[in-house]
Amino acid sequence: MSVCPAEYFRSAGQRFCDSYQASTGEQRKAWLRMTASMQSAPEIRSRQGWSRHTWRHFRNGIIFASPWIIGLLLFWIFPILASLYYSFTEFNAIQTPRWVGMDNFIAMVKDTIFWTAAYNTLWFAVVSIPLAIVWAFGLALVLNRRIHGRIVYRTIYFLPTLVPSVALALVWIYLFNPATGLINVPFDWLGIRGPCWNACAAWSRPTMVLLAMWIIGGQVVLYLAGLQDVPQELYDAAAVDGANVFQQFRSVTLPMMTPVIFYHLVTSVIGAFQFFEIPYIMTGGTGAPDNTLMFYSIYLFKNAFAYFKMGYASALAWVMFIVILAITLVIFRSARHWVYYGGADFT
Amino acid sequence: MPKRIPQAGRAISRRSFLTGLAGFSSAALLAACGSTTPAGDSGSTSAPTGDSGSTNAPAQNGQAVITIELWDQQTGLAEEATKQIIADFEAQNPDIKINRTYIAQTEGTQSDQKLLTAIAGGAPPDVYKFDRFIVSQFAAQDFLTDLTDLAAQGGVKEDDYFPFAWEEANYKGRLFALPFDTDTRQLWYNKDIFKEAGLDPEKPPQNAQELLQMAQELTIRDNNDRITRWGYIPHGDQAWIYTYGFAWKGEFQDPNTKRITCAHPNVVESMKWFQNYANTFGVDNLDAFTAACTGSACNDTNDYFWTGQAVMVVSGNWKVAQAKKYKPDVQYGAVPFPGPDGPAPHASWAGGWSWVVPKGAKNPEAAWRAISYICGPEGQNTFCKTVGNIPTNKAVAADPYYSQDPLAKAFIDLLPVSHTRPPIPAGSLLWDELYKARADIIHGQDPETRLKAVDDLVNAELEKLGFFS
Amino acid sequence: METPMTRNTTSYSRRRKQIYDLLTHQILPHIILLPAAAIFLIPFLWMVSTSLKPNEQLFAYPPVWIPNPIMWENYPRSVTYVPFFTYFGNTLFISVTSMIGVIFSSSLVAYSLARIPWPGRNFLFLVTIATLMLPSQVTLIPVFLVFKNLGWVGDFRPLILPQFFGFALYIFLMRQFFMTIPQELSEAARIDGANEFRIFWSVILPLAKPALATVAVFQFIRSWTDYLNPLIYLNDQKLYTLQLGLYQYSSQYGREWGLLMAAAVLITLPIIIIFFFTQRTFVQGVTLSGIKG
């Protein structure tokens, strides 16, 4: 792909759009393969020693990443290694840790609350993540239209994320009160008694999913920013081809949004496993009813700071770490098949 | 396996390892960003607390002044009272200056992340206000300074304090805290609603049987069978298993073996009554209340007792002051909890606060002088009169001031018969387990089996902690 | 998004198109958005309503939504009950500096991961994401030890300075955005002789403004609403933040609901205002379509 260097800064946008319009179907795949090979060529050569080119990239890469590399060494390495060490010890946070080998991990297998907490957390992840993606993406799609008052709408959708959690917790408890809460009013109109929400084991987990959908504003903003990056020309071209709204969504919007969806997916897996604040607030940290809201992070927190079992808590944390890492790696593998990057093709 | 007491040598070796790390970290940081200036705002004059304990400055009389750090979580009236106590103390002790810092209290926790982090990080305050109920737990983990010898030197005696409070401040015969204030519990009822419902406001229930009957008369349900006014909330406010167990003359700890005995026959009896009550009023209604009042959602003005959504509750002396503040025009009464065969003043159990010197405090001697003043007659007097709490110091409690208000007197009179929760190093675990057990009993589990499970779990944990050895 | 009209449409079909557009672009979205907006508004409305209630209406049953009388005085009282403006200044300082730090550092790192084909970047990327996977509860104490040994405990440094070294979530986010920008733009600039920093500064950053603004807003809110870190690291009330201040309205013996909620409203308003007025920058920023000549 020859690019005229002199014209580059002036016409970058135009050129980009041209190449996109050209790149439909097979053409796009070919284009992607080419940019990908431009990317990975130096790495293939690295087996026989790096070229000057590769060295230059390596030097630049390190320089640009240096703040974070220093940050990792300074603020992250010691705490991460320390918690790994603690996971093999009996440690109350102040006395000298006592090495117990695999004892903490063996104890976990027999710990029924560990299994309950793991089940609750997995349940929440499996149910809430797809819903959150559809819900946030859907709202962003509607909000991205040129409609009256969309700035007001966006602000309103963002509101629950801004309200301090002390206040938010109280309003939730108040609204969801199975006896007097506002949420029962529609059921009363129908003359039936509404569900028991977070009060009973049957409804407690779905209620948590519902509450999680309330604080989705950040993700909506994210999708909106992503939608802004989709070139209008692609829609125009699709419209000229006679594509209707749904076809445009499938062939333009969705592929162009896959990097954002990928980000949301990975971060929400991490977020779901560390789900803490909402159930902690809604149960006062007890995990009631019947331990159905005893999430993994709550159990971990209680072990660390209420029962002073920092060693066991660290072991719990590292098991969680391994599970999240495994799931993330699977997502990364799969990303090759469904995430479309305009700029490069790796991960 | 018995827990070993850490040796100084090993503790130091860990610390020196960390210091080594600090050297590395600081060097790396300096290399990274050159001269990084502190980011504090220019108006502030603070010094990092880690070192401030040792700031010495000459006093007017030539003596060195020691500044000690004091942390507490008090606001409002309690904060004012504490500031007053500090000022009085400083006036009497010119060689000590107290630097007080308010610490935010994390919602719904008995644990304290900030204190624990500070102790573990070697930067604790010298003096801290502490829930007396978890003193044993913290002492067992070596988080607190042993005050036994300092107390002997300073002439502070067991006899100065109510026995239950003193017991909670001790662990394995050593003193780790000084008791501060306390509270007691009994049945509160709304006289106005009694009258309105055609009951005699001067005849509250005398026994458990009457409690159930009156509760049924006072309860109001809506079309969907939801309770909109509770005659008596069986699991609200202070209606814990402890309250019922003590009312039925049960025991939660064997006085000789120190083992936990929640499955004591009398406790089981009380839980059978409780389970029957729950079934009578509907398990789903009890669940609805639990969910609605999670955490601190039903505290203060949102308390069902003040909103008139509950006519009778088990609660404490703090309601005396709240009644005056929130509902000055409504008539309330407080009487001993109605036990299985007549009024049971022994259903009351006392909690309360204490002051401690965390492990690693820079100035334990000065800290001791501060807490022995705060928890001494003058400190307790100032605090309890400002806030309306009950003192644990016998001399202060004898002050006729505390018996002036008949409601307040009803609570202070309970002190001699009040129980305490078993002072064990797994207090939080036992509390959490009893909370879960109560929920399971509401949902139909056999009380005896369930309480037995609590005993097994907690005793196993105590065994591990070396509590029985 | 206006669908371009083909030149030979008749006026009839144009009219039909207009009605269709009105329906799909204006009426239908509002039918979806309005009820959703009502649901999202409830927490804030309840907060405002509570902040203006007299004590006896706070938790009255059935609930009171419009207070009577309206207690405007809760607002002046709430800002004097605690040193509100000191806390406000501290929080603003922490939030703004953290925001600047995180944008600067995270965009550089994201550029390295997304735009420079250096060996080892995939490994660094994985390590970056991995830092998010270990729950902070178990690293709280070791992290405290690090800051203590740096001598930072007790002032703003543990809250601000780490942001100047990047934060994994935002590095990841910006990487995703940077990667959607066609590689040929960079290649062209490289052939043109531009160095990496120039490509980063004059090609990539301008194209990624929506992402930068998103990160800026996220970090600002993250600092603004942070409770745990100020709690752990600040030991002087003069340095406290608004979130810590909110807890001062509660005590063991009672809670000033009206004042607490008034303060919560006052804390939330600045972010709402900032968000409202900066939206143009980050959801309608200079995008690729905007460059088109």
Folded structure, characterized:
The complex is a heterotrimer of chains A (347), B (469) and C (293). Chain A is mainly α. In chain A, 71% of the residues lie in helices and 1% in strands. Chain A has a single domain, classed as Orthogonal Bundle (MetI-like fold), CATH 1.10.3720. Chain A has 15 helices and two strands. In chain A, a hairpin with a 7-residue loop joins strand 1 and strand 2. Chain A is flat and about 70 Å long. By secondary structure, chain B is α+β, with helices and mostly antiparallel strands. In chain B, the strands form four sheets. In chain B, strands 1, 2, 3, 4, 7, 15 and 16 form a seven-stranded mixed β-sheet that branches. A five-stranded mixed β-sheet of chain B has the order 9-10-11-8-12. A two-stranded antiparallel sheet of chain B has the order 5-6. The N terminus of chain B is likely disordered. Chain C is an all-alpha fold. In chain C, strands 1-2 form a two-stranded antiparallel ribbon. The longest helix of chain C is centred in the N-terminal third of the chain and has 41 residues. Chain C has two domains: 71 residues, no CATH class; 213 residues, MetI-like fold (Orthogonal Bundle), CATH 1.10.3720. Classes of the chains: A mainly alpha (347), B alpha+beta (469), C mainly alpha (293).
Topology:
The complex is a heterotrimer of chains A (347), B (469) and C (293).
Chain A: H1 8-22, H2 26-45, H3 52-86, E1 89-90, E2 98-99, H4 103-110, H5 112-143, H6 150-162, H7 165-175, H8 185-189, H9 201-212, H10 217-228, H11 232-240, H12 245-273, H13 277-283, H14 296-305, H15 310-338
Antiparallel strand pairs in A: 1-2
Helix pairs in contact in A: 3-15, 5-9, 5-10, 5-12, 5-14, 6-10, 7-13, 10-12, 11-12, 12-15, 14-15
Chain B: H1 8-33, H2 49-52, E1 56-58, E2 64-72, H3 76-92, E3 96-102, H4 113-120, E4 127-131, H5 135-140, H6 148-154, H7 163-169, E5 170-171, E6 174-175, E7 178-183, E8 185-190, H8 191-196, H9 208-218, E9 220-221, E10 227-232, H10 241-247, H11 265-281, H12 283-292, H13 304-307, E11 310-316, H14 318-326, E12 332-335, E13 337-339, E14 342-344, E15 351-356, H15 364-374, H16 377-387, E16 390-391, H17 394-397, H18 406-412, H19 427-442, H20 447-465
Parallel strand pairs in B: 2-3, 2-4, 10-11
Antiparallel strand pairs in B: 1-2, 4-15, 5-6, 7-15, 7-16, 8-11, 8-12, 9-10, 13-14
Helix pairs in contact in B: 3-16, 10-11, 19-20
Chain C: H1 11-51, H2 74-81, H3 84-115, H4 121-130, H5 136-149, H6 157-160, H7 168-179, H8 183-191, H9 196-207, H10 209-224, H11 228-233, H12 242-246, E1 250-251, E2 254-255, H13 257-283, H14 288-291
